[in-house]
Request: fold
Amino acid sequence: MALAIERKPAIYEGSRIPRPIPTVLQVDPKLREEGDILEVNFGPNHPSTHGVLRLVVELNGERVVGLKAVVGYLHTGFEKNMEQKTYWKAITYPERIDYLSFQINELVFVLAIEKLLGVEVPPKATWMRMLLSELNRIHSHLVWLGTAALELGAISLLWYCFRERDAILDLFELVTGVRMHTRYFQAGGLAEDIPPGFFTECRRFADVMEARVDEYEDILSRQAIWLERTRGIGLLSAEDAIALGQSGPVLRASGVDWDLRKADPYLAYDQVDFNVPVYPNGDVYDRYLVHMDEMRESTRIVQQALDGMPVGPWIVDDRKIVLPPRHELHTSMESLIHHFKLVTEGYRVPEGEVYVAVESARGELGCYLVSDGGPSPWRVKFRAPSFAALEATATCMSDALVADLIAIVGSLDTLMGEVDR
Amino acid sequence: MSWQHIPGFLEKREAHGETTVVVERERLLEAARYLRDEAGFNVLADIAATDYLGWNERRVAGYWGSIGGRDINSPGSWGLHKKPQPKPRRFSVSYHLLALREGAGRLRLQVWCEDGEPVPSVVSVWPTADWHEREAWDLMGIPIADHPNLERILMDEDWEGHPLRKDYPLGGEPVRFSGEE
Amino acid sequence: MAVERKRRANLADYGLNSERVLMRRKGPGVFEQELGDLESKLMLTTVEKAVAWAQGHSIWPDTFGLACCAMEMIAIVSSRYDVARFGAEVFRSSPRQADLLIVSGRVSHKMAPPLRQIYDQMLEPKWVIAMGACASSGGMFSNYAVLQGVDKIVAVDVHVPGCPPRPEALLEGIVRLQEKILAGVPPAYEIRGVAS
Reply:
């Protein structure tokens, strides 16, 4: 995978990034004098389910001439809360950041801890993490598709997508006991062994999923209204996308062949075979196509992971970071002491700082972890892909109608929990 | 690539497979341009500001802003075995850079500053830095010089204080259980 | 239609401590039993019973999805956990057309004024379900940014615990709200005597 893209300066001739403020579309002063500009507030509570995003939009008739995104309505203070908890307890927090692909958030935090600790995770845990990450990706794309189609008027797709979504959540419940926010990953592997019956159910799901994706494409991809509402809308060129730090489906729909699973493989992605969908135009329709193809590729990865799942332990053997198995507590004094220290104080992570990035459903999700050698993190910062995607709204919205605004914001697949953390 | 040619180069550290380059705060903009144009780091992934107040001692902020810390979850309050390496200044701002080429070259560009010292904005180099720098200002109180629109982004506009600093209390309130009466 | 409110102001006189109605201390079926007795004690007229029947069986929620709980709230609309069985499938986007505000997700301090504004825009009678741990009490986020419980700013009728609550749990919350309405319990802002 060679990336042959010429290095152009970030704000170049054909760039649509507004100046001087890249994230604010400002009304042309001439237009302000002559036309009548209506300022409308797409307030934090609006019918699209992308969460609490506020867009202050200035309209000239139906055309959007000014745009400013106000975020922060879901700011939860994750990072400061995590500084007060031990690493073990802190793993429950990152899940709620991106609440649609929740285990991928856990994954990035746990990978950062493991990088600092320097432990090697057993292969079964690695493959299982990969399988669950791909299920999370499918889950996120299904909810995205259901809600994006709902906003553009294809209401019935919501029920179709949520049928599959419930099937995936049943799988999560089978493995971990909870539908959402499972907290299944642990520093060193998985929290518990995979229960029997999961692989059969997962295979049954994966066999059905490809046909379902074809069903969704049948409904939408050649439908006249869908094409008219999404073709040529919200254009983002490849150079602008790179300058604005985009990643994930938005970047791939703009023609840049970049996927962290291929470029810098983590977990076991270099051992499975999958394609990365890239489309050239950079409009809403291409982003939709990227999402659909990614669902198919994720299903392929799930099937390959089921075929190639190794046997063995599900968590590393190091008693300094992982609880010993319960039967040992009756016989071994050291195990008892380790168990006690781990539960009360938590394991200590050596001093250092790391940045780990994975490919979440929305793009590059990064975790910057600074440790001071103690049992709780000193600083955790999550790099949310939707944060960067929202910065690109002003560029995508350069000459859009109000109806296109909904389509564009939907296609950027932003999740406010991530943006505001 | 040769590290010495980065404008303002102070130090290079390598750990856990990652490279961190520390540059002088005043020459950050030149260093950023050099890294984007000459070294090919065309994506700014993240700007992470960190507060090292109390790095070598016990934690400063605790529950309700007292030095005692929470009882249930106050790990490390009984001291650390080994004191960590002291840091040059109170705040560090880390720019995580990514090069879109085979192998995904990553680099952490770091500057250090004290409370109130401004850090130049890199918006002209990577436009995506706009909101990241606003967040650094909002949550950590690091003033960014020459930023086109330096306002609070995640907190309310009239919020006082910078929440992610170590001397800002966690907040919240004690939990009362209804079975207590 | 003017409904007499005065005699219902002191539910405690009728032996109902409204906070306890929703907590199962004594065993299954007690909730329905308590409400059943209440209905006979309050002596609702036929018209009032009819109004309560109509209101209870067609509660229209407002789309107030904030965070993770919103995903489970959308799940109750889906075909597996069909909420249309209970009459509440019509999620209105405009608060002026909605009866029920399901606060699903963590409410930050920046979001609290819009929440109160939405609540104010709803017409009476209106009910509030605080869905999930974050809306009920701040949840796992006991910090500077999150409002510790949405009942600090609006009067909540039903708290649904969970993080996030399963769709069945939310349906149970809606069903209990329905039963409250049918029994004649006034909305929470009347019981607490707060502004609505």
In short: Chain B touches chain A through 57 residues (CB under 8 Å). The mean pLDDT of chain B is 80.
